[in-house]
């Protein structure tokens, strides 16, 4: 499944802010490693992302706020609608 922010950008948002929105969406859904915990000689990443209730459907994600300029925040869905595409479950190379 691929999450897409549309190509159109709201007048209140610049292209740079649109990129920040995309990055924030990716972090909200997939998470971001913020640290590493070492326990019994094993390294485990600490991943931070939205709770399942906030990332389980597009409507919830669309209401989440993303910073734009200064102290201003707008919903993810304001720069452009969020939608999903379903693609192949696996991509194979020529060597199989």
Tell me what you see in this structure.
By secondary structure, the chain is of the alpha+beta class. The chain is extended, with a radius of gyration of 17 Å. The protein contains three helices and six strands; from the N terminus they run E-H-E-E-H-H-E-E-E. It has one domain: Multidrug efflux transporter AcrB TolC docking domain, DN and DC subdomains (2-Layer Sandwich), CATH 3.30.2090. It has helices at residues 15-30, 52-55, 58-63; strands at residues 2-5, 32-39, 42-48, 65-67, 73-75, 82-85.
Strand content: 25-35%
Strand order, biggest sheet?
Answer: 1-6
Distance between the termini: 23 Å
Shape: extended
Distinct helical segment count:
3
- Main β-sheet description: 2 strands, antiparallel
CATH class value: Alpha Beta
Helical content band: 25-40%
At CATH's second level, what is the architecture?
A: 2-Layer Sandwich
- The overall pLDDT, averaged over residues, is 76
Low-confidence stretches: none
Looking at the structure, the CATH topology is: Multidrug efflux transporter AcrB TolC docking domain, DN and DC subdomains
Number of domains: 1
């Amino acid at each position: 499944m691929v999450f897409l922010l549309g190509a159109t950008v709201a007048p209140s948002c610049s292209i740079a802010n649109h990129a920040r929105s995309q990055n924030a969406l990716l972090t909200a859904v997939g998470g971001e490693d913020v640290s590493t915990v070492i326990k019994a000689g094993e390294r485990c990443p600490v991943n931070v992302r939205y709770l399942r209730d906030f990332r389980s459907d597009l409507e919830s994600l669309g209401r989440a706020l993303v910073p734009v300029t200064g102290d201003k925040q707008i919903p993810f869905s304001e720069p452009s609608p969020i939608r999903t595409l379903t693609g192949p479950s696996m991509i194979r190379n020529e060597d199989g």
